[in-house]
Amino acid sequence: MLQIWRSFLLVAQILVSILSFTLVGLAQSQAIFMAAPLVVALLSVPLLGERVGWRRWLAIIVGLFGVLIVIDPLGEEFSLVTLVPVGCCFTFALYSLYTRLAGRYDAPEVSLFYTGVVGMVLTSLVGPFFWEEVPLADWGWLVALCFTGISGHYLLIRALVVTEAVTVQTITYLQLIYGSLFGVLVFGERLTVHMIAGALVVVGAGVFTIWREHALKKRQGASSTEASLVGR
């Protein structure tokens, strides 16, 4: 049941992210998505029973404040649709947490299998009700979407094999830059001062949270190694 639930969350996150790009825009959505590692750290306490020190709690609070800056709820351009990427961010964080929880019991191949099967079933059930004829000019974009999706997942897996997860997580913040560039150059979106300032705060808090978690794990690993040597 856990595997089915986490797979459902991934499908929901993908659908909501597409809706977010349509309603809110690529650049602003990406800026809010960057808070996902902070939400993961926040929800890991009640869901996984993990401990979060005061430094990371402070980073989480600062990062969530950065999200408020991006949303700018008191601004004239604020709309309730801006909360859609916030919901997407929490959905992805829940998926990440339940994936971590599933990893305690099942191998990665099992999780990957359930992700594919559940995703295929859910989209097959929903797809026929929203099917539209695809114009010939859009087939190139669909092919590009499939290619980048497959290659992106493969490269992510390879990156996690050849380097540490903390490095991969930090580098993923580059997608904010790419997303903003595509939003401005391709879709004509406008970057506001609130979006830029809030994104910088979110990224800074996220990087600190990731680095702090890595430092604690490294310290615990060193302590375990030292204890085993003393035991000998």
In short:
With about 230 residues, the chain is mainly α.
Structural descriptors:
78% helix, 232 residues, 10 helices, 0% strand, mainly alpha, single chain
Main sheet attributes: strand count, strand direction, barrel closure: none
Helix/strand structural class: mainly alpha
SSE string, helix = H, strand = E? HHHHHHHHHH
First-last Cα distance: 43 Å
Number of domains: 1
The count of helical stretches stands at: 10
Low-confidence parts: none
Q: Kindly state the number of beta strands.
A: 0
% residues in beta strands: under 5%
Shape: globular
Helicity range of the residues?
over 70%
Mean pLDDT comes to 83
Integer-rounded radius of gyration: 19 Å
Plain-language structure description:
With 232 residues, the protein is an all-alpha fold. The chain has one domain. It is 78% helix and 0% strand. The protein contains 10 helices and no strands. α1 crosses α6. The longest helix is centred in the last third of the chain and has 39 residues. The mean pLDDT is 83.
SSE blueprint and pairings:
Layout (H helix, E strand, L loop, with lengths): L1 H22 L2 H8 L2 H13 L5 H18 L11 H20 L5 H19 L12 H24 L2 H7 L2 H12 L7 H39 L1
Helix pairs in contact: 1-5, 1-6, 2-5, 2-9, 2-10, 3-4, 3-5, 3-10, 4-10
